[in-house]
Amino acid sequence: MKKPLFPLVLAMFLVVLPIGVISFGNPLANAKEINSPSDRIKIDDLTLSNEKLIINYENIHLAQFEDTNSMDPVLDDKSIGIEIVPDYENEINEGDIVAYESEYGIIIHRVEKISYDNDGWYATMKGDNNSVSDPYNVRFDQIKYVLVGVLY
Questions:
Q1: Is 78 in a helix, a strand, or coil?
Q2: Domain CATH for 123
Q3: Contact 125, 110 (CB under 8 A)
Q4: I want to staple 80 with a disulfide (CB 3.0 to 4.6 A). Which of 12, 124, 140, 151 is the partner?
């Protein structure tokens, strides 16, 4: 005697439906997409032993930050940054966090937009916790480092 398919289909519907609700109906999963920093350090660049983590990457530097609050909550005065020196403009992308030279000293902010004008390549910067962009265009020769990691 054949069993009806209805209970099986209903059971499948009940199992699949909650997954769909979690994936598509979760208000916490509907955040606006923003540019993230570029992936630079790959898993193959890392060696982990019982005693240490080795980052196999050239031109790597460590940085500490002042407590300006402009990059909260990503960077704070106790954070340790891992930075690299960029060689070319095309290594800088929107969403990257860079340290650049300004008339006020070194500033570390996120690249909001990359553009070109009569003087060439420039980036518009903004601190994540600031309400407005930095008031000047940042040229590639002002960029000293690109943040590739943060230790808390």
A1: coil
A2: 2.10.109.10
A3: yes
A4: 151
CA gap 109, 126 in Å, rounded: 6
Tell me the pTM.
Answer: 0.79
- 31 inside domain: no
Q: Average pLDDT over the chain, rounded to whole?
A: 86
Give residue 129's domain range. 43-151
CB within 8 Å of 15: residues ≥ 6 apart: none
- 133: three-class secondary structure by DSSP: coil
Q: Terminus-to-terminus CA distance in the chain, angstroms?
A: 65
Pairing of strands 105-117, 120-126: antiparallel
For residue 71, count CB atoms less than 10 angstroms from its CB and return exposed for 0-12, middle for 13-18, buried for 19 or more: buried
Domain total of the chain: 1
The pLDDT tens digits for 84-117 are: 999 999 999 999 999 999 999 999 999 999 999 9
Backbone angles phi, psi at 43, to 5 degrees: -60, -30
For residue range 14-39, list pLDDT tens digits in order.
344 444 444 556 667 777 888 899 99
Q: What is the pLDDT of residue 111?
A: 98
